[in-house]
Amino acid sequence: MSRLLGDGHRRFLQTLMAVGITDEQEARALYQHCCDTHKMQCIPDKLDEFIEAINSRLQPMFMQIRKGMSEENGHQYYLDLIVSSENGSASSTDILNSTDTMTSKKLKKSETEHLLTRLVQDKWLCERRGEYTLSTRCIIEMEPYIRTMYQDQVKVCHICHNIAFQCQICENPSCGIKIHNPCVARYFKGRVEPRCPACDDFWPHEIPDRAHMTSPSSQQGSMNRTASTGITSSPTRRSEAARDSTRVLVGVCSCRK
Amino acid sequence: MTQRKRLSNVQSSSQSKRQSNSFMTQEEDEDATFTQPSTSQVQRGLEKLTPAQVDQKTAEVVQYILVKDQKKIPVRRADLVKHVVKDYRTVYPEIIKRAMRTFEQVFGLKLVEIDSKNHMYVLVNNLDASTARPSPVERPSNPKMGLLFVILSVIFMKGGVVRENLIWNTLKKLRVDPGQRHEEFGDVRKVITDEFVRQRYLEYVRIPHTEPVEYEFRWGQRSDMEVSKAQILEFMGQLHEQDPRSWTQQYREVHSAAAASSSQASSSSNHR
Fold first, then answer.
1. Do residues B163 and B93 share a domain?
2. A252-254 vs B186-187, strand pairing mode
């Protein structure tokens, strides 16, 4: 169903396309600002509908505003389109060394460094103390691709069923389930003796402090995942916990079939 | 359909809505395989295609232009036809029309043909800039735009055209030396005389009969569309602590331009 858009929608979309990714608070503020600027009615809880209207018009062009969750602190991020990279977490040394084995295109060390800096700047990678990880934006955008191409290697969070790069793993060799750090915080909150949800072994890892993760908002997390070439989990399989804690962000991404 | 047949169709049929391009010149070498189809040809072409097919092709054109416009270099019709439209060229006018509508309705952008001879398009913001207030989400800004703004200001205040030396001297005073590599802008001269010109922000034209050769700068078509002269005058007023009205000639130009664009804006809103 195609909806009529106003200038408020258009300004929102333009800003999002320029900035790439925002968190929930920014999205709400932007929504308010766009409506005010163009004298459109702004109902605070109707951000999702607002975005849905834009998405309905973007759909014919295989584009969409999507939301997702940050692995680092549980914020849900909406995010934006384009190119990719590889590997869960890699040290800068590893990355620089790996360029030696590239056959299709030779990259000098300085070019690699420059590329890495740019990818971080454009929010495709995160860098911390010399280690590079995929950004939230990257993971959300590339999820279908990653699931297909790395089917055997990709780790999936036992709680929310999304791809897991930064996660804790059950130490039981015959179990080995993975859980995102924020999902761990949520799941084990308040439990005196944390136990693996799959094998019941003692969960040996430090339980992250829930206060540093997002506090659950009342908003429903609706993952608009259209057109994937890989396996995408249906909303019904998600645990209640995952559904509750959803802070949302907006970006525009490609969803070509 | 052979080339010859298409030509004769164009010549014999009713006048096409757009600039007719029936005669191929040397310059249009690369455009040689494309002549603007007539309205009746377009009608016939549409009959052979499903609405879904036309929509799909429109979507592809929109995406192509969105990506290409990121570099701010005008999109050539020849490239569009060769890489995207391809077999749908008979219904090209219809596809472009729909793409324009999509840009306006979904993105608040206007697809404008800035060169009706060589057929090139740019995307311009269609949203009302005058109502814009500071946004809670700041769009990443390009430092080169600051540089451009200074140049555009100088040109505007000097009546619309300046000799290049004035620009170089002004920039030198701001510690941007075209002779040296700049930390932020790199090869300053190249950015201004090549990049900005290709992006249609500036025009860099040779002054005839000058020896050694001298050039002059003017506003480019993109600047005309994207940059608000009113804003520049406002900024000048703040900079010199003067009322913008004290520059009577420029003030007059701003307000006649504003009148023209506001009538344009109201007519475009009627089409929504």
1. no
2. unpaired
ipTM rounded to 2 decimals = 0.71
Domain count, chain B: 2
User: Is residue A227 domain-resident?
Assistant: no
- Given a contact cutoff of 8 angstroms between Cβ atoms, the answer to whether B68 and B110 are in contact is no
pLDDT digits (tens, 9 = 90+) for B194-213: 999 999 999 999 999 988 99
Q: Both B108 and B183 in a single domain?
A: no
Q: Is residue B106 part of a domain?
A: yes
CA distance B83 to B201: 26
Instruction: Scan for tokens 């940059």, then name that residue.
Output: B227
In this predicted model, what pLDDT tens digit does every residue of B71-107 receive, in sequence order?
Answer: 888 899 999 999 998 888 889 999 999 999 999 999 9
Mutation site for A-interface testing, chosen from B56, B66, B105, B106 by largest number of A Cβ within 10 Å: B106
Any chain B CB within 8 A of the CB of A21?
A: no
What is the residue range of A28's domain?
7-67
The Cα A173–Cα A49 span in angstroms is: 45
In a domain, A242, yes or no: no
Q: What is the CATH number of the domain that holds A171?
A: 3.30.40.10
CA B94 to chain centre: 21
Nearest to A13 among B107, B128, B136 (CB): B107
Among A34, A67, A100, the domain-final residue is A67
Last residue of a domain, one of B98, B129, B160: B129
The structural domain count of chain A equals 3
Chain A nearest CA to B191, separation (Å):
21
Helix (H, G, I), strand (E, B) or coil at B206: strand
In 10 A of CB B147, how many CB atoms? 20
Nearest by CB to A19, which of B59, B131, B139? B139
Nearest to B92 by CA among B105, B104, B79: B79
> What pTM does this model have?
0.62
Q: pLDDT 10s digit of each residue in chain B, 272 long?
A: 444 444 444 444 444 433 334 444 434 444 556 788 888 888 888 888 888 889 999 999 999 999 888 888 889 999 999 999 888 888 999 999 999 999 999 999 999 998 888 889 999 888 876 666 778 888 777 888 889 989 999 999 999 999 999 999 999 998 898 888 888 888 999 999 999 999 999 999 999 998 899 999 999 998 988 888 888 888 888 888 888 888 888 888 888 765 565 544 444 444 33
Q: Do B137 and A19 touch (CB under 8 A)?
A: yes
* Last residue within a domain, chosen from A48, A67, A86: A67
Residue B218, burial from CB neighbour count under 10 angstroms (0-12, 13-18, 19+): middle
Asked which of B94, B129, B164 is the last residue of a domain, the reply is B129
Do the chains contact at B106 and A19, CB–CB below 8 Å?
Answer: no
Distance CA B247, CA B263 (A): 24
Judged by CB atoms closer than 8 Å, whether chains meet at A62 and B59 is answered as yes
CATH number of the domain within which A35 lies: 3.90.1150.220
Q: What number of other Cβ atoms are within 10 A of residue A76's Cβ?
A: 25
Q: Which domain does B158 fall in, by range?
A: 142-227
